[in-house]
Amino acid sequence: MVKSQGGLALEVHNLSKRFGDRVAFSDVSFEVRVGEVFGFLGPNGAGKTTTVRTLGTLLEPTAGSAVVAGIPLRPENGVEIRRRIAIMPESPGLYLRLSVRENLEFFADLYEVDGPRERIDGVLRAVRLADRAGDLCGALSKGLRQRVALARALLSDPQVLFLDEPTAGLDPVAAREVHALIGGLRRRGVTIFLTTHRLEEAERLCDRVAILSTTLRTVGRPDELRDQIFAQSLTVRLVAPLPDPVATFGGLPGVTGWAADESAGYALTVSDPAVAAPGVTRALVAARADVLSISRSQRSLEDVYLELIDPAAIDTDHESG
Ligand code: ATP
């Protein structure tokens, strides 16, 4: 497979798209490295699909520029870009009265795939559908159809694969299968641009994620974003509430604030959990507290997302002063 120059699969600079007065996305800039699984998250109407369609040459941007699989995104380069990428849209777009193999034959012909028979056999194996090749697409479950759609997207051996909500509407088992297939593609070095509403999916699969809500809110590794957006914290669980938490936690090195819950639990805001935990433990022992656990609190990507998209949705801890 030919890889793009400079290790970048996508370079997006100040890209915008509007439909008349409606702004679909505005001033979006990011880069995706070759071989990365890049998550693209955002609420309904955030502009994710329009971004995919724009980078996939199906729509012309209103402003800005991009390089897709090493080729500048310009109308005259559309054919060349489309040769190097594939888009799996949210709805599979298959002919339900044709069999799985007939669908793939039709699209292999459309995409002018070299050696179509071998290629079709290869993609059917890749999505583990070789034994269902003769089934009518209309008779397949939603999850299996999604796998056929993925096979269709793989026919052209793309360098960059855009997956638009590939697990929308799938049950957890079918979604896991799609995740396993994405893992397999990543191991083969395919760059994957994944739009999703499933935040745990993005957290599990993606090297980095971008959060879009018409404009880009942030880009980074999920753990980086958690650390950037939320203070580090320790969670302490006791058998009974402390009689005087101010006396216990006040002035401890590395502890900058704390909040109590109703069940003898305390969330401590700390500069570095590794520095703060020994002092917290000693203070609890000195206060004769019966400790059930002291652990580092884990914020999820979902917390990051909600904080960026809707800050009111997240409870914030109180400062101890
Ligand atoms: P969802 O998660 O619901 O699929 P999305 O993030 O993919 O949403 P888009 O489908 O890109 O969002 O839509 C972004 C905005 O652009 C929306 O306000 C939408 O109504 C508008 N839009 C998208 N396509 C068109 C179009 N062809 N003509 C006019 N407006 C459009």
List keywords for this structure.
single chain, 321 residues, alpha/beta, Rossmann fold, Alpha-Beta Plaits, 2 domains, 6-stranded mixed sheet, 4-stranded antiparallel sheet, 14 strands, 34% helix, disordered N terminus, disordered C terminus, binds adenosine-5'-triphosphate
Provide an overview of this structure.
With 321 residues, the protein is of the alpha/beta class. The chain folds into two domains: 8-226 and 306-313, Rossmann fold (3-Layer(aba) Sandwich), CATH 3.40.50; 231-298, Alpha-Beta Plaits, CATH 3.30.70. Helix content is 34%, strand content 28%. It has helices at 48-55, 78-84, 100-110, 116-126, 142-154, 172-187, 199-205, 222-229, 245-249, 273-286, 301-309; strands spanning 8-19, 22-33, 37-41, 63-68, 71-72, 85-88, 160-164, 191-196, 208-213, 215-220, 232-238, 255-260, 265-270, 291-296. Strand 1 and strand 2 form a beta hairpin. The termini are far apart. Bound molecules: adenosine-5'-triphosphate. Adenosine-5'-triphosphate is lined by residues 19, 22, 24, 42, 44-50.
Blueprint of the fold:
Elements: E1 8-19, E2 22-33, E3 37-41, H1 48-55, E4 63-68, E5 71-72, H2 78-84, E6 85-88, H3 100-110, H4 116-126, H5 142-154, E7 160-164, H6 172-187, E8 191-196, H7 199-205, E9 208-213, E10 215-220, H8 222-229, E11 232-238, H9 245-249, E12 255-260, E13 265-270, H10 273-286, E14 291-296, H11 301-309
Parallel strand pairs: 3-8, 3-9, 6-7, 7-8
Antiparallel strand pairs: 1-2, 1-4, 4-5, 9-10, 11-13, 11-14, 12-13
Helix pairs in contact: 3-4, 4-5, 8-11
The structure holds adenosine-5'-triphosphate.
Adenosine-5'-triphosphate (ATP) binds next to strand 2 and helix 1.
